[in-house]
Design a protein that fits this description.
seven-stranded antiparallel beta sheet; 10 helices; 38% helix; Ribosomal Protein S5, domain 2
Length: 282
């Protein structure tokens, strides 16, 4: 038995701490058995790893192994995904004969991981899959009226989420609040209806992106280039420095190549899809 959990991109521009999108880049976790060799590229993790902490907080026992290509400190929901993985694995081990038994505890998993994370957007996307809106402990799946490819540009440098959040203003103006509320509403509606033409302006933000981009010049350049190269939408993924963008599936490879060329080796791109399943026990 092992748990597979998708990476995520949070905020989606204006939806600060409220919107998340699950991505087809997966971390896997299991309880180590000395009689069974580890999977290729898997490794044992210690008790201080965030997946192990969540595992034990949910009553799990044993040493965990992990196989995790999700980079940490890049804005792709590493800490949320691995904590979801550990927590789900703990519940799944209670129901070895019922692979779906852990699902009854999904909201308990989210509550715990949100407590450990300090916010729920990444964790909710990794746990439930698809696009989600989160507020007040509630998670609502956003029906997608389009089937985009997701291109992510991942720079070589990392950021600290805690340090990034500390740089943000503690108060916002009335105009900026209205700007973001309106853009968030239009973004959710555009995703649900498939209104591609509304996406670019709908992912504009005045609460966090500009401040974070001041310290991430290459990310700012990649964000601008994404639109110039035909992306439907683009945003700073989580606290950055990764930039995520939506585009037509048949144009994703060309967009990724063109963006790599435009950024001249400052980072690298991955072509992903929206993960629709969220965390699964296999």
């Amino acid at each position: 038995m092992f748990v597979r959990v998708p990476a995520s991109s949070a905020n989606l521009g204006p939806g600060f701490d409220a919107l998340g999108l699950a991505l087809s880049l997966y971390a896997e976790f299991g309880v180590h058995d000395d009689r069974v060799p580890l999977l290729e590229r898997a490794r044992l993790i210690d008790a201080h790893h965030p997946a192990s902490v969540a595992f034990r907080r949910c009553g799990g026992a044993g040493t965990l192994w992990a196989r995790c290509p999700i980079p940490s400190g890049r804005g792709l929901g590493f800490s949320g995904a691995v904590r979801v993985g550990g927590a789900v694995l703990a519940y799944a081990t209670r129901y070895p004969d019922d692979p779906e038994g852990w699902v009854r505890h999904r909201h308990e998993v989210l509550s715990l991981v949100a407590e450990l994370e300090g916010h729920a957007d990444n964790a909710a996307a990794s746990l439930f899959g698809g696009a989600v809106a989160v507020a007040g402990g509630h998670v609502v799946s956003i029906p997608l009226g389009l089937d985009p490819a997701v291109v992510v540009w991942i720079p070589s440098f990392a950021t600290s989420t805690d340090e990034s959040r500390q740089s943000l203003d503690q108060t916002v103006s009335f105009d900026d609040a209205v700007f973001n509320v309106g853009r968030t509403a239009v973004l959710v509606a555009a995703l649900a209806s498939g209104d591609i033409g509304a996406l670019a302006s709908a992912c504009q933000d005045r609460l966090h992106q500009d401040r974070r981009l001041v310290k991430a010049g290459p990310s700012a350049a990649a964000l601008a280039a994404a639109f110039d190269l035909g992306a439907w939408a683009a945003w700073l993924s989580g606290s950055g420095p990764t930039v995520a963008m939506l585009c037509a599936p048949d144009g994703a490879d060309d967009l990724a190549i063109a963006l790599d060329d435009a950024m001249a080796g400052d980072g690298h791109t991955k072509v992903l899809q929206v993960d629709r399943q969220g965390a699964v026990v296999q």
